[in-house]
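Everyone, carefully examine this protein record:
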Amino acid sequence: MTSWIIAVALAGQSAQPNGFDDYLRAIRVLEQRGVRDYLSSRFGTGDGKPANLPGLSAGADRLSHARWAADRFRPAIELLREGNSKAWSDPRSAETLGDPAPEFNGYKQLAKVITDVAYAAYSRGDSARGTHTLLDGLVFSERIGGSSVLGQLVGHACFLIVLNGFDRELSRLSQRDALQVIEVTTELLRDTSALPSAYAREEAFASRAALSSIDRPGYQEPQDFLDASTHSYYRAVDQHLSALTPAAKQTLRVNVRLRLRQLMHLLQEAFRKDEAKWSDGFAELDAFFPREPNITTPSGLADRIALDHLPITAPVVNAALIRRAKVRLLRLHARLRIYRWNHGRMPKDLSEVAAADEINDPLSGTRFLFEPRTEGYRLNSLGSKKTGEIDMEFGAAKPVKNEEVTPP
């Protein structure tokens, strides 16, 4: 067994059936079956030497690669599907979980394989299997974000990889496929547990790092990219820490833990609200703590250390908001496909295809923008000041073309 998989298995094993274990097994299967060589050949990465893939000739096109992957990595996709059918949680504690977790790179490899396996299914006319595979990928990507804040970012990267596969295949969705997309995307939007779960677990990681910074010589490790004023500030914090008596240092540990708990509670409460208010947690943090605590006082020093170890928030929250907007757009694309089959034309307005709660965009506070065109339509979200305009596509926005109607 690969060394990092052994480490993960020893770090925490699930007492109950857990999709986490199946995801790890899926990654192990990919590794055993040559996923690195496959991705090197598929994307032209690695050391420049052609990958030796049995049964696949050098210079093979994308479809040949996808068909090879569908056959070679089928057991991994089956394990992914099995994992999605179970409850999911990361059984590791802050003391045993590495940073970054060793499986994260494997998760991204799995997302790339998912899109190729789905592409192979669509290419042979099996849109049901292709759609099922991509939806499995979206569910998997969302769930792994509950492990930690870094897990949120890795899950977001996996989500965009899989969603890009959907963007290419919109015109191939049958009516049954579209109904399945609506069902799964609605469930994804209903479940908002991943973000609060990530920050709940992050409290333990942050506390461990903060307490370690108090006890070790030198408050923070020197970093070349930091400016002189930041280095000077770290030295000042270190001087105050060095002057503390053992009793005062113990009191500081208690206060830092308390501050972090208060900070994380504010964030978690914000994430349990409607998603349009998720960013309110930032304002509440600013109101709760001074921006520049006075480190010469015991309370100010505790505030400063807690703030220095607060997990990143803005990029993670923005990624989650973008992800949810894209899920809503995917659901509307499916609604539009069904409407066209039933009416033989595109609607003039989104109110013809979905209820108000689906066509209203909670992120922008307006409707999703729908622009019918001669050769199709464009659908997007205005987003917010922090996210910018959002299209379902991973990359620049483009209109969706009208294709021949695929039979249901």
Q: What stands out?
A: The first strand starts at residue 360 and ends at 361. The CA atoms of residues 33 and 104 lie 18 Å apart. Residues 3-196+317-345 form one domain.
